[in-house]
Each structure stands twice: as structure tokens, then as C-alpha cells.
Specification:
The chain has three helices and seven strands, in the order βββββαββαα. It is an alpha+beta fold. The strands form three sheets. Strands 1-2-3 form a three-stranded antiparallel sheet, with no helix packed on it. A two-stranded antiparallel sheet has the order 4-5. A two-stranded antiparallel ribbon has the order 6-7. The longest helix is centred in the C-terminal third of the chain and has 11 residues. The protein starts with a strand and ends with a helix.
Length: 154
């Protein structure tokens, strides 16, 4: 969390605001080793003032409100292509990671029949290449592509 300093607490030497490069003579905010005017301590995207609010920053040092940060940096679901956002009123992102891809819980489905996949017995994922399949569709694909496998499975 950022530290807030008021006029009577400022040091003898004024500091420059990292955003506007002007000297700070009034209330200032110190965050991540930088100084900000209170009026300059804003979200990089929506410009909402972040004083007293939960925020984060990117690798370039830009400040973000949590909503905008997640809209920009949260992983995209491989299936629906939408961002996988945190559970409401938290910063917790629940996702399934499979074959180096990310999925919403409801998007992790068999590509052939649409059955919801999970780590529960009977609902497991049986991938072939980049295709996510349930066990039945996995067997169906293997046996249709390679009839000689039918003899092995029987």
C-alpha cells in the first residue's frame, strides 16, 4: 500500500512527482520508491485516483486499478478467447491449465461431444495433439484413424 504524507511531514528537500515531474509541496504519496502528487496517483487506463484503493503496477511501472489490470493482463481462455477474470470481490483467478493453455472452468470441454472435463474420475481429459477429448471420444478418434488399434483394445 502507498504511504501518504502531508505538508507538515514533508522533508526539507522537495521531491519531484514521477508522473508530472513537478516538485511536490503539498500532500504526496510514496509508492514503490517513487513520489506522486495525490492528484497524479491515478490508474494508467481509466485515470481513476488510486489513493486509498487497491492497485498494482505493470513491469513498466504504470499504475492500474485492479479492474483495469485484470482486463489487460489476465490470461485469455483458449476456448472462448475472453479474459479469465478474478472471482467477484477477490483477486483470485480460477482457471484450468492444460497443454500449456488456459481455460474457464465452463470452457474446458471435449471438442467432439461438448462434455465438461475435469480431474474427477470419468471426466478426465484425454488429449490427442492439441485436441481436448473425453475418454469415449479419444477412443473413437484413435480407432477411426487407426483400425489396427481396435484389435489391441479388444
Amino acid at each position: 500500500m502507498a504511504e501518504v504524507h502531508f505538508k507538515n511531514e514533508r522533508p526539507a528537500i522537495s521531491k519531484k512527482c514521477v508522473i508530472c515531474s513537478m516538485y511536490i509541496f503539498e500532500k504526496r504519496i510514496e509508492a514503490h520508491g517513487s513520489m506522486y502528487h495525490s492528484r497524479c496517483f491515478n490508474c494508467f487506463l481509466c485515470k481513476q485516483n488510486l489513493e486509498g484503493k487497491e492497485y498494482t503496477r505493470d513491469d513498466s511501472g504504470n499504475l492500474y486499478c485492479m479492474n483495469d489490470y485484470h482486463q489487460v493482463f489476465s490470461p485469455r481462455c483458449t476456448s472462448c478467447k475472453h479474459r479469465i477474470l478474478p472471482v467477484q470481490d477477490t483477486n483470485v483467478i480460477i482457471r484450468i491449465k492444460a497443454e500449456e493453455s488456459d481455460y474457464h472452468m465452463n470452457c474446458f470441454r471435449c471438442e467432439d461431444c461438448g462434455t465438461l472435463l475435469s480431474d474427477c474420475y470419468g471426466e478426465e481429459c484425454f488429449p490427442i495433439g492439441n485436441s481436448l477429448l473425453c475418454q469415449d471420444c479419444h477412443v473413437r478418434r484413435i480407432t477411426s484413424e487407426r483400425p489396427d488399434v481396435i484389435r489391441i483394445l479388444n
